[in-house]
Structures are given as C-alpha cells and as structure tokens.
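step=encode ok
step=design start
structure_in=
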C-alpha cells in the first residue's frame, strides 16, 4: 500500500503503521526531516511544501494523512492574542482547502484523513472529534476505547514523549516539535479505521438503527 504522510514532523502519527507499506513523508523543515529519516529509514522523505505536494500527487496514493499547521485555529493561540502575548492571526484556510479538495478529487478507493485541533470557532465542515483532535475523512472514525492522557502542557523538550527522545538532536524548539506530535496509538487507531472491516459493521448498524434492511 502506498501512503502519503503530509506535514510529517518526526512521525508521531506514523510510528505504529509498520514497515510493510511504502510511505512517502513530506516535511518542509530540513532539521525535522532529518530526524524523521533517522527514525524511519525505510520511508521516502521529501523536503518540500506539503500543501503543494498534495495538489500534484494525491492520485498516486492509497492512504493520505494530512496534519496542516494548527496555531491559527487553536483556542490557546486566540486566548493568548487577547492577552497581548501574540498577534491575532487569520485562520489559515489551507486546512479547508485540503478537506474540500480531497472530498472532490481523491480517487474513490483512496482513504484520506485531515487532522487538526478543535478550533475556537464552529468548524466550517463537520469533523469527527477524537481526543481533542478534529478528523475529516472519507471513512467513519469512532472514538477510542480509552482517552489518551493529556501530556502536552507538561512537555519541556528534553524528555521521552510517546517513545521519542530528541534531546540530543541539533534542532530548535524541541518542545514545539514534541507537542505537535499525534499520539502514535491514536494515529494507529485512525489507520485501522480506514481499512478495518469494522466499517461494514458500523454501516450495517446505522442502517438497522434507521429501520432499514442491510445487505
């Protein structure tokens, strides 16, 4: 299976996907991309703009994961702006550009998911919400059986987070890099939801609940 991992960071979401797939990771920061390469040497890493890469290559993959930058949608950033700690930002509409694009142009057999924070405004397109994340996708995403422990506020950048330790890496803002990661268990849950037979079971249950007859 060919997988596209956009805005890859150091690969928190990808950690538990295994090595039997052909993974292409897109990251525009050279130092962060280098860490990803060291952690996942079998993946093909391209240092370029993920938004543009998606537009030109979406048709070549079986599964697409995109995690566009989230600060402009974050309530934390909005509150900090009200306190004068940050300048106000327009919400970055590339998030919705990617969702709408994939909804309309992704091949029918391609599974895709776009991940971001729960925004400070009502989402313009209804997402699935799991563990303080929004997920827009062309498959059903259920909540995990156990909510992950919120650790982001305690990250300082020198400790091991989700099995990753970058304290010795020559890269700036280690805390931000670690905070930006998706919990690997959550990343694996989403990955399984894209392809697991549970999709058929959910569809059958929904049909039954509506009083219809499943086939």
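sequence_out=
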């Amino acid at each position: 299976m060919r997988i596209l991992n956009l805005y890859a960071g150091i690969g928190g979401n990808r950690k538990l996907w295994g090595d039997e797939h052909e993974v292409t990771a897109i990251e525009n920061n050279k130092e962060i991309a280098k860490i990803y390469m060291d952690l996942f040497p079998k993946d093909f890493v391209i240092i370029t703009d993920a938004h543009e890469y998606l537009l030109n290559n979406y048709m070549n993959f079986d599964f697409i994961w995109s995690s566009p930058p989230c600060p402009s949608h974050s309530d934390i950033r909005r509150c900090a702006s009200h306190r004068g700690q940050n300048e106000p930002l327009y919400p970055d509409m590339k998030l919705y550009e990617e969702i709408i694009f994939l909804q309309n142009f992704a091949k029918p057999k391609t599974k895709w998911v776009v991940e971001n924070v729960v925004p400070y405004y009502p989402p313009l397109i209804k997402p699935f919400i799991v563990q303080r994340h929004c997920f827009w996708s062309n498959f059903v995403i259920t909540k995990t059986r156990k909510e992950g422990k919120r650790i982001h506020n305690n990250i300082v950048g020198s400790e091991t987070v989700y099995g990753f330790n970058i304290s010795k890496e020559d890269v700036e803002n280690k805390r931000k890099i670690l905070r930006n990661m998706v919990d690997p268990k959550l990343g694996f849950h989403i990955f399984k939801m894209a392809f697991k037979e549970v999709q058929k079971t959910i569809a059958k249950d929904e049909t039954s609940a509506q009083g219809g007859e499943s086939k």
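step=design ok
step=annotate ok -> The CA atoms of residues 51 and 85 lie 28 Å apart.
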